[in-house]
Amino acid sequence: MQGWIKLHRKILDNELWYDVSTFRLFTFLLLKAAHKDGVKVNGHVLKQGQYIRSYRLLAHDLSYKEGRGLKQYSTSTVKRCSAKLIENGMITVDETELGTLFTIINYASYQHLSNEEEETQNGTKNVNRTNPERSPNNNKNVRIKELGVVDTREENNHSQIQSDGAPVTENKVSPEVERRKNKLAECFIKVRGSGVYLKNDELFAIEKAVEMDVPIEMLMTWVEEIVLEHNSKWPYDKVQNFKFCVRSLNKRYHEHKNQNIVQFGSQKPKTKESISERMARLKREGRIPMGGEGS
Q1: For residue 129, what pLDDT is reported?
Q2: Can you give the residue ranges of every domain in the chain?
Q3: Dihedral of the CA atoms 71, 72, 74, 79 (nearest 10)?
Q4: pTM for the predicted model, two decimal places
């Protein structure tokens, strides 16, 4: 297999970058996936973005050098890495008679080649323009697409096209909103106590949660209390998805906003008076005689 693939620089900011084995597996699948429909492997016709291989052979493919020898992942490690990619919406997996069929989700959106960049069968490129017309930027082998979170938007401020053909305008996220999202995500992952990835539906729920008009520290405290309270009651059914927190967060948010609101015509409820406070007040009002005085 010849040619090159496109890889987004933002992979450096994704959690996948810090998981070496999972990153290597995803990169290997990108390199090996069929670049167009109709590629045949052992009689099996692949579609664009697909690759067929057994976990055992993948473990061998991902061998790495340590010291003077080669080390190899176990098949269970490869399956665990594959499960992370599935969980993050980056690939799908199907079992076949010839092996495991891996399909890279949205492969075409960030590996699509223009007519000027498509390779011929002998591995060379079709050049339809003269050399002066080609700038260094045209030769970059980097596609600005984020691999960690499935997102098929183009990197410009113009209208985009969804899969159904409807135009979409990219939403700009302020640094403050991004900061709140990251802190809340990190808080939930920490209190959950398992895994380092969040699904797309969790990321969306977190994005909605940080819209609440309260300090991010308060939101984080609420999330910690919700998760810890549930886990203490149900230790065998612990919270795994941020969406579990949404209803309780909304309830706490409304209680917080309404706690100081008094309806028109009504009085703010008085705090309950303790016995000692009541005795002291009655003495001040002269309703209880002071001890030690004669009659």
Answers
A1: 46
A2: 1-114+143-148, 175-258
A3: 130
A4: 0.41
